[in-house]
Here is the input.
Amino acid sequence: MTWLKDCDANSKFFHGVMAGHRRHNVINMVSVDGLMVEGVHNVRSAVFNHFSAHFKSTGAVRPGIGGLQFRKLSGVEAGALTKPFSQVEVKQTIWDCDSFKSPGPDDISFGFIKEFWDLVKDDFMRFLMEFHRNGKLTKGANSTTLLL
Here is the structure.
């Protein structure tokens, strides 16, 4: 609060806080094979050597996916993943959402969309078809203006 009240990003208070963080986050020494290693260069070398050896080791047991059987999609199932959205699917998805939750800062809840579905469904479906065709949201999708 003091920092914000001073309205000075480069204040003595700011530098004091940052110095405290730096002192708190420093690693002064590490234990290597039961021996304590001190000093910036020695600690840096010890950490580097530890991780260098760790990632170069060839005898390490690493998890793998060999031998696992994965279910594969049929051609019909794979095609269903890329088919356009149907109006029935979109409506069911909207009706599955909580009516009082707002999807964004425009305060238009799913309850509003459900209540006026007959009026907005064509625009909704046009928006989704455009997304499906281009793989991008149309320009201005985050800007909503409604006139009632």
Observations:
- The chain has a mean pLDDT of 82.
- The two ends are 44 Å apart (CA to CA).
- The first helix runs from residue 2 to 6.
- The CA atoms of residues 55 and 63 lie 14 Å apart.
